[in-house]
Write a structure and sequence with these properties.
The protein is an alpha/beta fold. The chain contains ten helices and eleven strands. β2, α2 and β3 form a beta-alpha-beta unit. The N and C termini lie far apart (about 65 Å).
Length: about 290
């Protein structure tokens, strides 16, 4: 049995943090500290962990972190009012609303309210539209993290067949748009599959690069993977006391040439790319402020 090469998301995220540190230091030296506001509604335990991880990343880089933890029963109007305030807050350059939101709040209403200039999650229609035409400002963090994992692992995407299992607005659709672009780290042929795809294995077995983002524990097994494929596991599911991905790691590892672990693969990259978007937002704000003084 040959073992695949693990794609270490923690190590690659650490590289990105090292690249961001001098950019943050340059802004701070000019009296301008980047700021990220994170809004958490309710008591979802996983969301609280994700928010803490983002705050720790901000602390590492010298980014100012603003946390707004609202009660589960917060209504849409209160949440939108807070976003309106943050949209005009001079020390906040990025706004993130931690998903999922409570069932009584429509996510779309919330995500659309965030200023595109502070949309560091990359979910606003303006930023998704810019991505679609190949002129992005802020890329969605998880897809961008996946693209960086591939690039920095020396995995060629151009000319390859990428199969994405999952059609969410957060991962599947934007990742497809990114990898199909006429650009470095892209130029792939992309297929999107999902829960309604008949004979799913017939599609996944043709993938040179297989991305599992369907939200089902161990849904992708070894028999569904081509020999030598690169496998990116986006899923994170709790099964008993264990965290597992959307890929059955043991059986798929017998086929894959590269594979991401869960945890420690895509997850750290999502946070790293959020930090990258926040620094970019602050730099853009600072540049515009400088222009305004001339």
């Amino acid at each position: 049995m040959t073992f695949p090469q693990l794609i270490d998301g923690k190590a690659i995220a650490a590289q990105i943090y090292e690249e961001l540190r001098p950019r943050v230091a340059s802004l701070v030296a000019q009296g301008f500290q980047p700021g990220l506001a994170v809004i958490l509604v309710g008591e979802n335990p996983a969301s609280q962990v994700y928010v803490r991880n983002k705050e720790k990343a901000c602390e590492k880089l010298g980014i100012r972190s603003f946390r707004y933890h609202l009660p589960e029963k917060t209504d849409l109007g209160e949440l939108l009012s807070l976003i309106d305030t943050l949209n005009t807050h001079a020390e906040v350059h990025g706004i993130l609303v931690q998903l999922p939101l409570p069932p009584h709040i429509e996510e779309r209403d919330v995500l659309y309210r965030i200023s595109p200039e502070k949309d560091v999650d990359g979910f606003h229609p303006y930023n998704l539209g810019r991505l679609m035409i190949g002129d992005p400002v802020f890329l969605p963090c998880t897809p961008w993290g996946i693209q960086e994992l591939l690039k920095r692992s020396g995995i060629e995407v151009e000319g390859k067949h990428v199969v994405i299992v999952g059609r969410s607005n957060i991962v599947g659709k934007p990742l497809a748009m990114m990898l199909v672009q006429k650009a470095k780290g892209a130029n792939a042929t992309v297929s999107i599959c999902h829960t309604r795809t008949p004979d799913l294995a017939e599609h996944t077995k043709r993938a040179d690069i297989l991305v599992a983002a369907c939200g089902s524990p161990r849904a992708i097994v070894g028999d569904m993977v081509k020999e030598g494929a690169v496998v990116i596991d986006v899923g994170i599911n709790r099964v008993g006391e264990k965290l597992v991905g959307d890929v059955d790691f043991d059986s798929v590892a017998e086929k894959a040439s590269y594979i991401t672990p869960v945890p420690g693969g895509v997850g750290p990259m999502t946070v790293a790319m959020l930090m990258a978007n926040t620094v970019k937002a602050a730099e853009r704000f600072f540049a515009e402020a400088g222009e305004g003084k001339r």
